[in-house]
Design brief:
By secondary structure, the chain is α+β, with helices and mostly antiparallel strands. Helices cover 17% and strands 41% of the residues.
Length: 291
């Protein structure tokens, strides 16, 4: 692999309030003849992307934080298609490559080209508005997700009804708090908490899991990456139309109503994660979840 020497360090300031870890990491890089700039989350983001002067000449991103910070870093650096690796300062940390005790080893191996690249699939969710006077539908908003797209109730504490279509054919209606459509990467996140299956991140699938379904038979579905899932919020109360929230990786939220639906499919886009470890998914699972 290419020897890397110019890094963007993307920091969750809440995890490193006094810059202790950030300053140590910068010194490790510069002491070895490399260069580093630091981006502190939203503070150094403009128009949904890290400020160009911080990232334009960089070769890779090192993230200081947990899985949420990794996802946010992937979104705000996506325009530059840089590989990312993470140093976990959070709790579980499935996406982070290591913790800070191995930071020097990480830097040494990145700069020596001794690492691997692992690609992960990305979802796209198109919010489709109902047909207008001309009978044409239109895409209202479109966003991507690395972990999951969640359609859930918006506002009052009550269940919603969501109608699921697969490749244009009706599949199921859930009465639930919502549904999760996750990638294999996201199967260890909200999907797992909601009782969904764990899927190796090397697989290419869409996973649909209801959130707290009001049913004795509410189950998850696992689809091929070539399938397209369409979701409508369909049930209204006597006084108001149904409202829901579409959340992309917990990063972007879009409010929708009965006149909208969300169409979800995979994209050609990939997220590239740097790895220096020989551990596979099941090793990580045992170490973090099966304690």
């Amino acid at each position: 692999m290419k020897n890397l020497s110019r890094f963007l360090i993307y920091v969750n300031r809440m995890k490193d309030i006094d810059d202790t870890f950030t300053n140590k990491l910068v010194k490790m890089i510069t002491d070895r003849g490399g260069a580093a700039s630091v981006a502190y989350g939203d503070q150094d983001t403009e128009g949904g992307s890290v400020k160009s002067e911080l990232i334009s000449d960089k070769e890779a991103v090192i993230v200081l934080g947990g899985d949420g910070t990794m996802l946010r870093a992937a979104h705000v650096t996506s325009g530059y298609a840089l590989p990312l690796t993470g140093i976990n300062l959070g709790t579980v940390g499935f996406l982070a490559e290591t913790d800070f005790s191995r930071a020097e080893e990480l830097v040494d191996r990145l700069m020596a080209g001794d690492y691997d690249i692992k690609e992960r699939m990305v979802l796209r969710g198109d919010i489709i508005k109902g047909a207008g006077q001309d009978g044409e539908e239109s895409i209202f908003e479109s966003h991507t997700a690395i972990n999951d797209i969640v359609i859930c109730r918006d506002g009052k504490l009550r269940i919603i009804a969501v109608k699921i279509y697969l490749n244009g054919q009706y599949l199921e209606t859930y009465k639930a708090d919502g549904v999760i459509i996750s990638t294999p990467t996201g199967s260890t996140a909200y999907n797992l908490s909601a009782g969904g299956p764990l899927v190796s991140p090397n697989a290419r699938n869409l996973i649909l899991t209801p959130i707290a379904p009001h049913s004795l038979t509410g189950k998850s579905f696992v689809f091929a990456d070539t399938d397209k899932v369409s979701i409508e919020v369909v049930e209204k109360s006597e006084t108001e139309e149904p409202k829901a929230l579409v959340s992309y990786d917990g990063y972007v939220d879009v409010h929708i109503s009965e006149s909208c639906r969300c169409e979800i499919s995979t994209t050609d886009e990939k997220v590239r994660f740097i790895s220096i470890s020989n551990r596979n998914f099941y090793d990580v699972l045992r170490s973090k979840m099966l304690k």
